[in-house]
Give the backbone structure.
Amino acid sequence: MTTARAFFDDLHGKSALVTGASGGLGLHFARLLASHGVNVTLAARRIAALEGACRGIAEAGGAAQALGLDVTDPTSVSAALAERHFDILINNAGISGAGRAADLSEADWDAVIDTNLKGVFLVAQAAARGMRESGRGGAIVNIASILGERVAGGVSAYAASKAGVIQLTKALALEWARDGIRVNALCPGYIETDINRDFFATEPGQQLVRRIPQRRLGRAEELDGALLLLASKAGSYITGTSLAVDGGHLVSSL
Ligand code: NAD
């Protein structure tokens, strides 16, 4: 009989880059990986916003450092990743950019597409270069959304960007499989964070919650199993997929 091995043990000693890690889900993912022995680099535009988070991870016994990075800026991305190799990339930085399509300005459209789609591509491309050079390959997890699969009112640019992320994930998985690089998308449903808590307490927010088959919002920690699966050897034969964690929202009744 073989001894049962703990899932995700291989993460210990690996290195990861988490973009948009100054708060919300990115910070949660960085803490999660650090608690599994991953040396985590937290990236965001303002390094000062990351330093407290890195100290907190170090105090909890983890290893973390801050990196200034604007995912929309190719110069910033190549400078940040030129000398750094990561085993894992969590492509999490994103903005919402809500507004009715008829009133959406070109600048708002560009901001959402540049951050959510071009940013994911630029960082994946630069990180994959390092994964290839190291000879160890790696795992890329793109944080998409259930709005990449279905739509709602007022989120045209966001939904288009996230649908692009899902399709980009498949294209990169196909091209990079031979380099030992796996690329998958994680599609969260509505997850309660500091940013949306107030909205979900309102009547329109509660109406939305009632349309989720499980009749509740998700919690950040309910993404942990999926993220660790896609980032670790437990997911070694999984590439090009998008995994929804949404309380059944995508299968809600039409
Ligand atoms: P958030 O606003 O709390 O975090 C987004 C992070 O991205 C912030 O740290 C922000 O500083 C960073 N960021 C924005 N633009 C950047 C840029 N140009 N360069 C570098 N960093 C940048 O939002 P969140 O809810 O934690 O969302 C994280 C990811 O999860 C996003 O991609 C979002 O679309 C996705 N998502 C969230 C939910 C949810 O319910 N919270 C659901 C589905 C998908």
Q: What stands out?
A: The chain is about 40% helix and 15% strand. The two ends are 49 Å apart (CA to CA). The chain has one domain: 9-238. The pocket of nicotinamide-adenine-dinucleotide is lined by residues 19-20, 22-26, 44-45, 69-72, 92-95, 115, 119, 143, 145, 188, 190-191, 193, 195 (CB under 6 Å).
